[in-house]
Amino acid sequence: xxxxxxxxxxxxxxxxxxxxxxxxxxxxxxxxxxxxxxxxxxxxxxxxxxxxxxxxxxxxxxxxxxxxxxxxxxxxxxxxxxxxxxxxxxxxxxxxxxxxxxxxxxxxxxxxxxxxxxxxxxxxxxxxxxxxxxxxxxxxxxxxxxxxxxxxxxxxxxxxxxxxxxxxxxxxxxxxxxxxxxxxxxxxxxxxxxxxxxxxxxxxxxxxxxxxxxxxxxxxxxxxxxxxxxxxxxxxxxxxxxxxxxxxxxxxxxxxxxxxxxxxxxxxxxxxxxxxxxxxxxxxxxxxxxxxxxxxxxxxxxxxxxxxxxxxxxxxxxxxxxxxxxxxxxxxxxxxxxxxxxxxxxxxxxxxxxxxxxxxxxxxxxxxxxxxxxxxxxxxxxxxxxxxxxxxxxxxxxxxxxxxxxxxxxxxxxxxxxxxxxxxxxxxxxxxxxxxxxxxxxxxxxxxxxxxxxxxxxxxxxxxxxxxxxxxxxxxxxxxxxxxxxxxxxxxxxxxxxxxxxxxxxxxxxxxxxxxxxxxxxxxxxxxxxxxxxxxxxxxxxxxxxxxxxxxxxxxxxxxxxxxxxxxxxxxxxxxxxxxxxxxxxxxxxxxxxxxxxxxxxxxxxxxxxxxxxxxxxxxxxxxxxxxxxxxxxxxxxxxxxxxxxxxxxxxxxxxxxxxxxxxxxxxxxxxxxxxxxxxxxxxxxxxxxxxxxxxxxxxxxxxxxxxxxxxxxxxxxxxxxxxxxxxxxxxxxxxxxxxxxxxxxxxxxxxxxxxxxxxxxxxxxxxxxxxxxxxxxxxxxxxxxxxxxxxxxxxxxxxxxxxxxxxxxxxxxxxxxxxxxxxxxxxxxxxxxxxxxxxxxxxxxxxxxxxxxxxxxxxxxxxxxxxxxxxxxxxxxxxxxxxxxxxxxxxxxxxxxxxxxxxxxxxxxxxxxxxxxxxxxxxxxxxxxxxxxxxxxxxxxxxxxxxxxxxxxxxxxxxxxxxxxxxxxxxxxxxxxxxxxxxxxxxxxxxxxxxxxxxxxxxxxxxxxxxxxxxxxxxxxxxxxxxxxxxxxx
Amino acid sequence: xxxxxxxxxxxxxxxxxxxxxxxxxxxxxxxxxxxxxxxxxxxxxxxxxxxxxxxxxxxxxxxxxxxxxxxxxxxxxxxxxxxxxxxxxxxxxxxxxxxxxxxxxxxxxxxxxxxxxxxxxxxxxxxxxxxxxxxxxxxxxxxxxxxxxxx
Lengths: 1035, 151
Fold this sequence. Notes:
Chain A is about 50% helix and about 15% strand. By secondary structure, chain A is α/β, with parallel strands linked by helices. In chain A, helix 1 runs parallel beside helix 10 (about 400-480) and helix 7 packs across helix 8 (about 310-315). Chain B is built from six helices and no strands. Chain B has helices at about 5-20, 25-35, 40-65, 70-90, 90-105, 110-140. In chain B, helix 1 packs antiparallel against helix 6 (about 110-140). The radius of gyration of chain B is 17 Å and the shape is elongated.
């Protein structure tokens, strides 16, 4: 029971303690939580948060506390957080120790309190027991005493007052015997009469015995049996005597003994007659029973005395003395037997008249409890003092209740405390772990950044000298070299270029890794880009005898908005990959075919027509099934073929681009990791073809950034097809017509010149014919397709439309020279159309074409490109021949296109540089203004801007390019604030750094100071184009 | 002299200058920039370069004569000179400038002085050669021929 109580109490106390502790802990943690917020530990905080919500149980409360803590302590805490972490820990440990000590004190005090209570209770019960016993003993004694007193009156009445006496020994004995029940405590009663010496003789005579003295009796206590009165000596002569004349049967032997002769008795008697009250002797051994007893003596007077009588009067009036022998031992024993719990209490009775030497009257020496209670006994004799000592027989029991309750309390409190302490400790540990991990994470991130930085820097640093090497090699090529030397130089150049492109790739990868890659959104012409790429690869492919072709569906808008550079990079990577796969092949024949469609078109074609026969490919070699390359595309598999592409939004253009080759294909085991960075198909291949293996992974990233997907199918020894989708925005559809005109006019000089011209393409392969038609249509030429010469002839001779140009595939021409010449002869009869032979490479054609006679048809080497076609056609047909047949490079053409009419500010302190830069820009048609210092530049470049762009030297005296740019940007910023939402183009001028020192002009530094890019000095056409095209998307 | 002969001489001379590294591709680029709208573009630029060169060389000499030498100042001049020589395509001058700058960076006075001498040397050679080149061009033009471009 008590244990249950203890546990209950403990729980209650525990609960009471728990609540404030929880509050404290949660406060502290809210505090930490805020700190954590400050240090951006969001993840942890959210967890913390949940935990705390549970704790406080109410969100509002949390928010409130949160704010409160944030205001008060958040900031301070933030600063000292790390510093005080360990301090707080030791503080917690100290608190824990203090807590334990506190509870030990509490529980021990409780223990003391409870045990003292128990002792007190015990004491009280002992006191009451003792007092009860004492009272009862006293009562009983008093009863006996009263009786004896009554007897004394009886004697005075019937013995002394009557003459002759009515009482003799016999009567007395009988009477006392019969009334013994009234005096249970007296073992005997005797009466001694006062006899003066003068009366002695008469008295002795009367009684028939002499008065005997008592002292010998006292000195030699004898056994009852041997007891003989005769042995006692007669009493010596005294002034007076008090011989016993009557005695109860039990103490009959004391008759005739002079009571006054006994020392003790004498005193007793004397005191009794003086006081007139009952007087007790000191305890002594009773003669017969050998038990402790006392004698109570009453004086019997002759007459009734007043209560205030003097002792002398009392002595005079004394007649005799009545004494009763009390057997105290048995008295107490009897009494105790009547009472309960006699077993547990030990009672001792002492006569303490003499304080220093108390006389034990009752009780054994049994050892009991040390503690005892003393009750005074009043037996009616003021002279004698008696005390009753009570003690418990058993030692006090162990205070189990106190022990249980205090120990239980301590255990519960310590447990609760430990739970708290452990929890807090655990929190500290997890906090520490968390901090440690944060630290590690920071370091890892820093290391990652450092790695990327290192990569970027190293790449940059390599690029700079490589540019020098390449430039030198270029110069070397221009010198007089023999064939071998030229070959060496070309090889070195090729390697250098490969290295630079590799470095660029690594840079890209680093950018992707660090998430710095950002796509531009500028308007661009997809077809022009493809022409570029084609140009890039035409040399390589011609060397290999591989046919290159590009086909763009006419549903694809002319103008798209997106990142042309990156798009170009993807296609270049894919084509480069395809070319690589060719090198390995023994025959090295086949094609690489790039097609671009709208996704909608392709999806429809899937539904409508099943794939045409595998023979129907560009070069006649079988290819991998294109459809399988996009099997994995999510957009296609989800919600049906038309699902996500049927949206009527004209703004977004979903392109699907596929690059198909008939190379060796990719080994099956390598296909799964083809998009993993730095994974090579096969180390042996990479050794043969070079490449880092990151091109495809970069492509995949780029495609992903264009919201597209990339996939491929590859069949060993047949070929591979890579397909990707990309989402672009339609380039301003409203002004579409106008722009289309411009685009077609400018770079491809002659499109309008061929307007209305009809052409015939003779080609047995429909796909190849389609490609030819695509390019011709870009020149605004109407195209008819036939599959062989006979059909072509009939169309020319009978056709309604006048066909002025005929394109014949080399393979058709070569098939049979007689048919060819027949064809030529026949066409000549009519209005002779111009003949063009489309060949794959010059070398392979020359041998067979020589014999075909006059007029020698013009040979066009594939890959077809609109610009090249236009030039060739112009030259052959004499249409608008400007005499300038120089093969215009695309970048400079486009540069002209981009820069014509632009107002450009050139800032350079060096007059030579300034003039050269201005000259170059003027060459491209720009309107150039020059200034010679950064300060002048600032004065010229005040928003709203008069200039379309600014080329700024970096290193200038007084104010360098960075500083000038920063100031200009500040001015622009202020202006834009004033202006609100004015048109941006006037408020921000593109500033490009010009530098001869590529190392110094890291891109970041330029961007940091607000520049938009940099160009090397002196200008390189392609770099200039790349940078400028970012700001002038179209004229 | 025959125009064709003059033209050949010019071609040869220019090729020799390219070969010997006096000039580089940039000079050819510069020539490409010259057209009907600016017939004397190259000569203008080169004249400017000459003026610039003389001024800068004087500055460098003066700067190197001072005690103590302010290498930063020298370096600034050399940087300028490097920029302008790169712009006209004076390859050898440019290369010497690069070396010069290294010496400036290491504060090697002896090297700097040597470089300055070399620069002066290179410059006078280049100037002579270019002047000869322009004289040939003038003669060709005077004879009514066109100036051949070098690819």
